[in-house]
Amino acid sequence: MVQNAMSKFLIRILCLHALFLLVLGIGTIGAADGDVGGSSTRYPIDIQSKIGDKEVKLTLTGVAMRKKAIFKVYTIGSYVEQGVEVHSAAELVAKDCAKQMNLVMKRDVDGQVMAEAFLEGVRLNYPEPKFVDQCKALLDFMKNKNLKSGDRVWLTHVSGVGFECVMPGGKTLIKDVAFAQAIWDIYLGKNNIGDEIKNALTSRLK
C-alpha cells in the first residue's frame, strides 16, 4: 500500500512538472529535445508557429550558445519547416521556406548593442551599400528595446515575403527575402560569427 501511494505521488509530481513547462511555453521536454550545453535552456524538437498567414510545423536543426569573450549572451534554436529537404548550412540559408531562430537571452543586453551586433553580422558577407535600407530599418526597430536575461527573440524567414523579428515590446517585418537569407548567413554563411555555432545549428541535419 505504501509503495502504491508513493507511485501515485511520483506520477503527480511528474504531471505537475510537465504542466509547469507547458505554462512556460517551452513544451514538454523529452530526452531527445535540444539541450544547450552549459545552459538550462532546452528547445523542443518540433514546434508549431504562425508564420505569415498560416500555422506551420517546424523541426529543430540544432542548438548553440552565443558567447562574447567568456560571457554567455544567448542560446539559439534553429528550426526549418517540416518536410523541406535540407542537408547543409548552405541549403538551410538558401531555402525560401518557413524558418525560425529562437534566441533566449542569458544576460541583459542594450537594444542598440544588439542591433549593431546584427548589422556587423550582416556585413560579414554583404559589404555596404548592400541592404542599407533594410539594416537601417532593423536598427531603428531594435535600438530602443533593451533585453533582459530570459527574454526571447524570434527571427523568422517568411517564405516569399522576407524577415520578421519579434522582441519584447514589438515586432517588425522587412519585406525582402534576400535580407532574411542575409540574417541566416550571420550564423550559417561562409563568413559567420563562429564555425562552432554554425556546426551546432546544423548538427541535426542529415
Reconstruct the topology from this structure.
Elements: H1 2-24, E1 34-35, E2 42-43, E3 46-51, E4 54-68, E5 71-81, H2 89-94, E6 99-105, H3 111-123, H4 132-142, E7 152-158, E8 162-167, E9 170-174, H5 177-188, H6 195-201
Antiparallel strand pairs: 1-2, 3-4, 4-5, 5-6, 6-7, 7-8, 8-9
Multimeric state: single chain
Order of helices and strands: HEEEEEHEHHEEEHH
Range of helix content: 25-40%
Structure classification:
alpha+beta
Distance between the termini: 49 Å
- Could you tell me the number of beta strands? 9
The general outline is globular
Mean pLDDT: 87
Strand content: 25-35%
Largest sheet: 7 strands, antiparallel
Number of helices: 6
Radius of gyration, in Å, reads 18 Å
Text of the CATH class of the largest domain? Alpha Beta
Number of discrete domains: 2
CATH architecture of the largest domain: 3-Layer(bba) Sandwich
CATH topology of the largest domain: Chalcone isomerase
How would you write the strand order of the largest sheet?
3-4-5-6-7-8-9
Low-confidence stretches: 1-32
Mind explaining what this structure looks like?
The protein is α+β, with helices and mostly antiparallel strands. It has two domains: 1-30; 31-201, Chalcone isomerase (3-Layer(bba) Sandwich). Helix content is 35%, strand content 30%. α3 (111-123) packs antiparallel against α4 (132-142). 33% of the residues are buried. Residues 1-32 have low confidence and may be disordered.
